[in-house]
Amino acid sequence: MTPRTTFNYEMEELNKEITEMAHASRTAFERSVQMITDMDFSLREEVRALDKRIYQLNEQIDKHCLDIIALHSPVAGDLRLISACLKMVEDLNRFGRYATDIAELIDDFEGGKAFKRFESLRTMSCLVVGIVDDAVYSFLQRDAEKASHLHERDDAVDALYDSIFREILTYMMEDPRKITVGIDLILVARYMERVADHACNIGEYVYHMVTGERLDPKLRTGNVEQAPCGIFEHPDPRSELDLK
Question: Which residues are within 8 A (CB) of 103 and not within 5 positions of it... i.e. 6 or more apart?
């Protein structure tokens, strides 16, 4: 094969690796939140296995990117693409770490010690998964327009986090027996908020990769249609963290 043919092949393989890592990261995060909202403790081992696979892919992609740079000396758009991949894997890896952190909290929810309903967390998870999906989609489709609008939806996630924080804090003050679980729920919401932030980082990498320009925060305007909710098909916008 010619050097250019070899380079194109390596770039296609890199794209496949990023796609696999993105899918594993999204799934790990989704499963971890499902553990809490549905009290499904059986998902814990799946989350841990996914986190290990995500770490392996992180190392694999890092090495692959450096090999491509060393062997093919890419420039311009090709170099921006590889740079974006090197940055993206760190954010995708954080998805897996947050998922594992959420899974580690599950012990405090066993034995009926948890809040009964988690509609606010379901809604927040739906929003975050939508942002993650669009961040990955913008990379795969080289869609700078979609990537440039992710921060607007992140504002909704931030507002919902603030609301959940205040509500859980109120319940903890009313019933001190729920303090441990309440703190854990606040951590879960915080981890979800951070996942959305990392997804927005990916959007910034994609925008620079496609356009060659940095995304100006002052120019983040416009509206984007909300993505499908994945496992949470019909999130209830009401906040009902009952103490029953």
Answer: 32, 35, 43, 44, 47, 48
User: What is the pTM assigned to this prediction?
Assistant: 0.81
Q: Is 231 buried (19+), middle (13-18) or exposed (0-12) by CB count in 10 A? A: middle
- Alpha-carbon distance values, 77 to 32, 145, 184 (Å): 36, 17, 43
Q: Could you write out the three-class secondary structure of 14-75?
A: HHHHHHHHHHHHHHHHHHHHHHHHHCCHHHHHHHHHHHHHHHHHHHHHHHHHHHHHHHHCCC
Please name which of 93, 105, 104, 97 lies closest in space to residue 184, comparing C-alpha atoms: 105
For the record, the structure tokens of 47 come out as 């989350």
- 193-216 residue pLDDT tens: 999 999 999 999 999 999 988 877
Question: Among 142, 139, 1, 14, which residue's Cα sits nearest to residue 68?
Answer: 14
pLDDT computed for residue 242 by the predictor: 38
Rg (CA), the chain: 20
Distances in Å between the Cα of 176 and the Cα atoms of 180, 205, 242 are: 9, 44, 14
